[in-house]
Amino acid sequence: MSEIINLSNKIEKQLPTELVSFMQVAGEVAASQGQNLYLVGGVVRDLLLGQTNLDLDLVVEGSAINLAQQLAQIKLGKITTHPRFNTAKLQWDKWSIDLATARSETYAKPGALPIVKPGSLSNDLSRRDFTINTMAIELIPSRYGELIDRYGSIDDLKQGLIRVLHEKSFIDDATRIWRGLRYEQRLYFQLEPNTLQLLIRDIPMLDTISGDRIRHELELILKEKYPENVLYRAEELSVLHRLHPALKGNGWLSNKFKQARQLSHSNLPPVALYLALLAYPLTNEDSEQLISRLRLSKSLAQTLRNTISIKTNLKSLANPELTPSSVHYLLHGYSPTAITANSLACDFPVARQNINLFLNRLRYVKPALNGDDLKRMGISPGPQIKEILKLLHEARLDGKVTSKQGEEDLIKGWLARNR
Length: 419
Known about the structure:
The protein is of the alpha+beta class and 419 residues long.
């Protein structure tokens, strides 16, 4: 009989008091209904690794929705339910907990979403992606804190290994290929040798996965602390090329991602900026293929299109004789993210200087006078107003006028010449 490992001390030390007391109450309520309740997945892994993870996933052998409703009354929280999957999310104050009914899954065909049925904890753990994510902790009072490890997960954690549960894992769900690389790089682990062989064998299965699901995995990677490490590994294993053959996860990309983080200071760069840098080497046609493959949202697609469009104009932006108003004309209307991507990625120092001038100053320059002011000064309503406002804007951009008075003098001069 294997030794019982109890993690109640680790739970108390590593999790906020409010979440600890919530889990104790949840365990008591579940036990009073004759149900078993468990803390599962990534949070258990991270407790054992000594890392902070406040995304609590609870699994109940019973009804997750009923349990969530009872707990919402105790916590005076808000619940969101998904009856089709028998899951619920409970939110109160700044906390959010996911509750799921233990379930089994079967796959009608590779890449399809699973067919879900209620099941036991054993069923629930057996459907998971890697051994390190299959651990559970008992939450009912009589066994509170006891670790359940049915797949040798503790040994894999100690050895730093990412291991699938069975040899059809990547065939059933090829998004696990991307997830495996993400965990490997985040945790500084290695793919266990047989798992690595299966991953390489099953790379073609990525073509069975919908663009929405692939995009979701890519977005999770781009929210990692160092996404370039995952993309480098993905290129090394020919996984990245499955997204598009022209994508690179090389040292250039790594360098640009680091620069993007320096620009963002304490925050992680937005996903859109990372994605624009990843797509930067693509042609217009390549970019459209990637947009279609990943089913990108309108705004992300526009950022990619803008990025490539600005890239084709870089020679114009590299002209040292350009006036500020010409720089504004070349960049105005593009998304700031696409402009920033070009500032980081372009090879022309003068173009970069002009792009940064736009980002830091020119995009904020506006004339002090508006259309109503021009009418008061005697200019007839119509297309002329728009034309003169454009002239005023250019004069402001180029430093020919620097004040409201200067703008008024410019208009008076223009009126005198055109009467």
